[in-house]
Model the fold of this input.
Amino acid sequence: MTTAEPHPKDRLLATAARLFYAEGIHAVGVERLVSEAAVTRATFYRHYPTKDDLVAAYLAETSRQIRAAVDAARAGKPPRQGLVDAMAVVGDATRGEDFRGCQFLNAAAEFPDPGHRVRQVIEDHRQWFFGVLREQAAALGHPEPDHAARVLVLLRDGALHGGELDDPGKVRATLQRAVDDLLPA
Amino acid sequence: MTTAEPHPKDRLLATAARLFYAEGIHAVGVERLVSEAAVTRATFYRHYPTKDDLVAAYLAETSRQIRAAVDAARAGKPPRQGLVDAMAVVGDATRGEDFRGCQFLNAAAEFPDPGHRVRQVIEDHRQWFFGVLREQAAALGHPEPDHAARVLVLLRDGALHGGELDDPGKVRATLQRAVDDLLPA
DNA sequence: CTTCAGGGAGAACGATCGGTCTTTCTGCGG
DNA sequence: CCGCAGAAAGACCGATCGTTCTCCCTGAAG
Done:
């Protein structure tokens, strides 16, 4: 399947996102990437010096999209609704046909070294999301925004994995209710 | 490092558990396994027809140990304390020096096919744990034991991943408090 | 004493890994 | 029209993948 992206670099990134997420990062070789992206090996290594660079780019792009979705979900809303809707973005992610858990948690499982570049992208994304939750919790007057944000992160991580391994519909409902119960009316 | 286990099969299993968990399953080759277990390739394949069989055995053994720990933690206790202590087993798991998240979630990230034998071991373990939580919740008179158990599973999954990627101490405290708040006094 | 299973040692299999290379072609700015 | 960057095509590198094989040795059962 040749992705519709015009530029080879974008085709590579789109193909990498699809294959890495669907099959795992170590499980997808360079040959698969270049053949499905309709790109040659030379072109691959011209844009991404190593495979790990492509992995980092894949996660960075994923983070960018999620930040946009979450920011759009909470923009211009009262704090409580903004937080609920931001968490709903997480729940909605489990709806997709090809949902296979959290890209960042899956990647972390394959990159054990905490100092690896890929892990830093993961760390960045998690800190950003935690910051969003704490900010929303503080804005709605939660007495302990830090604690609330940490619980919400636990629920997020759990929902994204349970959404793959358990019944996604139930996980979504459970997440929504847990978030609602956690916040003061 | 040659494991102390006497029988080759046990040495292989112990070595596999250590390496698979620490470095990821696809990242550890048969050569590493046999050399660190001080076993030959022939012996490897005599006991485990394929590498996937060893992976399944590793997760099955891990499940066995966790079941023993959780059952011990809740045995002969009043329902609420039993549930809290069962969940504390999860939190305590994050204490280890070499803690690297949940063996089952990590493995699921590397085995995308839901029909794979490895995924069935994972599914079994998750269903068992959910059953334990629901049973405890029902015993302590929770009005909706199913919902409570599902929330607890979310917290479990989140804690096991946050315990690796975030501050383990804070994750532990957050988990403990979230569990306490979830249950009726 | 004989038998034979189980383990040790290591060569070898085809396939694939991540990565480098040369050559040819195409399209666009000067 | 020229020049040149970027992409296509594909051979090629050493290393490692999971797996199979032969050969020899030991130790316990009959």
Remarks:
- Chain A has nine helices and no strands.
